Amino acid sequence: MPCLNLSTNVNLDGVDTVSIMSEVTSTVAKIMGKPESYVMVLLKGSVPISYGGTVEPAAYGELSSIGGLNPDVNRK
To answer: Could you report the per-residue pLDDT of 1-42, keeping only the tens digit for each?
Structure first.
């Protein structure tokens, strides 16, 4: 099962997270060649993140999967 864990230092209050997760689920499924029903997406906001020495808006994503990850998928 592919799982995309997304964290951002942006406050997500008032953001339509359902549509974001739906679009991300569809994209991950398409890239990995898996059914959407197999894809899990976690979206966390207001996470303290520093990138490049600043705390400007940033995000971090980590994709894990048992099977399905290979050099071709990694390029996509």
So the answer is: 899 999 999 999 999 999 999 999 999 999 888 899 999 999
Distance CA 69, CA 72 (A): 8
Please name each of the domains of the chain with its CATH number: 3-55 (3.30.429)
Catalytic status, residue 48: no
Rounded Cα–Cα distance for residues 20 and 24 (Å): 6
List 2, 35, 57, 71, catalytic entry? 2
- pLDDT value of residue 30: 92
> Nearest-5° angle of CA 60, CA 62, CA 64?
175
